[in-house]
């Protein structure tokens, strides 16, 4: 078992001393009824034990404070041990992780207080209200405050951990973005340079078969055509090393070139291509992601047609609708001997991934005696608004704790207000005028005495301060001599037997000297 550190011992001793101060001074200044010295000493010892175990066993510490408060007052509230009860409830919420044991402890304290009030209470209704208000406002509310404090610290720690994790994720995202940029550049080189080299080879082939060209120049044009084809193959192999197979990047913008301009440039280079456009609002004129994707599809299809089916007629058809745009590139059979229709390579695979990533459709394969590439790109609509971030779980936890705190505070305030109002009413309506008391004579019938008595008698009579024992078998009632609140005041004791007043005594307030007490009793007689 780990030994407690000196700092923890010092804090525990300081907490015990601070909580023992009200227990030792409340009786002396008249906020409590006087108690024997041994009771005060026992209370201080129990508070010291609770303070010592409050760090490791906060539930035990609160249970000791609650038991001490119930022993001192059935209503659970007392000036001597009320501060200790609230402090240990706060520490219970701060140091205990589970809520169920604390709730059970509160319920046990409430049941024990209710049972004691029912068995030994003088005025059960107000005492039960005081006990309930103390339990809610002096126990549950501090406990919820401690739990809120605990959760705030845990959330702060979790926030720092999340910030560190986000920094790591940002570094990974930056590295990923760098790799994606490399792949994007590689893809654009594959599409753009491959297309241009194919057009160069196409022009060289047309020059090679041009009439009236010398053998030397014809051979040079053939070498140029072979070199362009070889450069295209080498470019394809190099790009394959730079590209990422699992992540297809978005293509670069076509630098203002429309689909129709792309087809016209290919036709000028000697490719037998025809442009057809139907529908309204084609994506080529709309701009954005759809235009870039369609431009890439047409460029890749024309490049494949020039490389794998030279001399074959090519038809580019673009159909625009409100929901999206489709493009179809169809080439016939090659006119050169030994040539074959275009097959699907990595370029077509990349096109399929790019188109399907935006919700479109892509297909490529043999068609009739040639090859056909078809792509449909839906209209890309702007988002209606920024995405709403997901609410963190700890925010919901904070809201639940805040609602619990507010509910406990509201219920406690209502109960404390009702209890205070009942206390003021009971104390003010149990005051017997000292002048009326002096006129009372022993032997007076009880009916005549009732005429000058207030509506209520004292709920918690100070029997232990009475100057003489009550007459045996007599019914004794206590009345306040003053309407002052929250301080000890003088009381009058009237004892009745057989329907007559048989004894009257003055019970002095706490702190009254012996000489003053004798003078007051002489005046009262």
What are its keywords?
525 residues, alpha+beta, Heat Shock Protein 90, Beta-lactamase Inhibitory Protein, Chain:B, domain 1, five-stranded mixed beta sheet, three-stranded antiparallel beta sheet, 8 strands
Provide a descriptive summary of the structure in words.
The chain is of the alpha+beta class. Among the domains are: 6-122, no CATH class; 271-380, Heat Shock Protein 90 (2-Layer Sandwich), CATH 3.30.565; 434-524, 2-Layer Sandwich (Beta-lactamase Inhibitory Protein, Chain:B, domain 1). Helix content is 58%, strand content 11%. It has 15 helices and eight strands. It has helices spanning 6-25, 37-53, 58-72, 82-95, 100-120, 124-208, 215-242, 259-268, 283-286, 289-308, 346-357, 393-428, 434-439, 446-450, 514-524, and strands at residues 273-279, 314-320, 324-331, 361-367, 370-378, 475-480, 491-497, 500-507. The strands form two sheets. Strands 1-2-3-5-4 form a five-stranded mixed β-sheet, with helices on one face. Strand 2 and strand 3 form a beta hairpin. Helix 6 (124-208) runs antiparallel to helix 7, helix 6 runs antiparallel to helix 12 and helix 8 (259-268) packs parallel to helix 10 (289-308). The longest helix is centred in the N-terminal third of the chain and has 85 residues, at 124-208. It is rod-shaped, with a radius of gyration of 48 Å. Mean pLDDT is 76; it is low at 245-254, 281-285, 337-344 and 385-391.
């Amino acid at each position: 078992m780990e030994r407690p550190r000196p700092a923890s011992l010092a804090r525990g001793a300081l907490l015990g001393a601070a909580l023992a101060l009200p227990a030792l001074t409340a009786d002396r200044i008249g906020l409590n009824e006087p108690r024997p010295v041994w009771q005060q000493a026992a209370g201080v010892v129990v508070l010291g034990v609770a303070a010592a175990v409050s760090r490791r066993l906060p539930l035990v510490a609160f249970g000791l404070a609650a038991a001490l408060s119930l022993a001192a007052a059935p209503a659970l509230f007392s000036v001597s041990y009320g501060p200790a009860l609230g402090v240990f409830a706060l520490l219970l919420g701060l140091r205990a992780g589970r809520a169920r044991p604390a709730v059970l402890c509160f319920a046990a304290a409430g049941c024990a207080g209710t049972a004691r009030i029912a068995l030994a209470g003088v005025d059960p209704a107000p005492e039960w209200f005081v006990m309930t208000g103390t339990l809610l406002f002096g126990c549950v509310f501090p406990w919820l405050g401690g739990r809120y404090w605990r959760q705030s610290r845990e959330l702060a720690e979790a926030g720092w951990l999340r910030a560190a994790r986000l920094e790591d994720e940002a570094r990974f995202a930056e590295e990923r973005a760098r790799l994606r940029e490399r792949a994007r550049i590689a893809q654009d080189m594959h599409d753009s340079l491959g297309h241009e080299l194919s057009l160069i080879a196409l022009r060289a082939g047309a020059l090679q078969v041009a009439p009236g060209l010398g053998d030397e120049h014809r051979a040079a044009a053939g070498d140029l055509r072979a070199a362009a084809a070889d450069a295209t193959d080498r470019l394809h192999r190099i790009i394959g090393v730079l590209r990422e197979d699992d992540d297809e990047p978005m293509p670069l913008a076509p630098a203002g070139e429309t689909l129709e301009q792309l087809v016209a440039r290919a036709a000028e280079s000697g490719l037998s291509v025809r442009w057809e456009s139907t529908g309204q609002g084609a994506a080529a004129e709309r701009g954005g992601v759809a235009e870039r994707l369609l431009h890439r599809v047409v460029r890749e299809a024309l490049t494949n047609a020039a490389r794998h089916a030279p001399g074959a007629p090519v038809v580019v058809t673009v159909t625009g609708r409100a929901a999206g745009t489709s493009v179809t590139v169809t080439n016939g059979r090659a006119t050169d001997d030994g040539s074959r229709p275009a097959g699907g390579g990595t370029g077509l695979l990349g096109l399929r991934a790019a188109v399907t990533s935006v919700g479109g459709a892509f297909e490529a394969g043999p068609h009739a005696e040639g090859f056909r590439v078809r792509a449909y790109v839906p209209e890309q609509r702007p988002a209606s608004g920024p995405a709403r971030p997901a609410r963190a779980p700890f925010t919901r936890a904070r809201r639940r704790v805040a609602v619990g705190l507010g509910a406990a505070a509201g219920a406690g305030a209502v109960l404390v207000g009702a209890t205070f109002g009942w206390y003021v009413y009971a104390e003010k309506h149990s005051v017997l005028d000292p002048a009326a008391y002096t006129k009372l004579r022993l032997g007076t019938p009880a009916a005549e005495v009732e005429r000058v008595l207030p509506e209520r008698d004292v709920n918690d009579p100070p029997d232990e301060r009475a100057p003489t024992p009550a007459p045996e078998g007599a019914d004794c009632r206590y009345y306040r001599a003053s309407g002052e609140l929250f301080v000890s005041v003088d009381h009058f004791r009237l004892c009745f037997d057989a329907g007559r007043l048989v004894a009257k005594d003055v019970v002095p307030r706490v702190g009254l000297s012996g000489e003053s007490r004798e003078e007051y009793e002489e005046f009262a007689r």
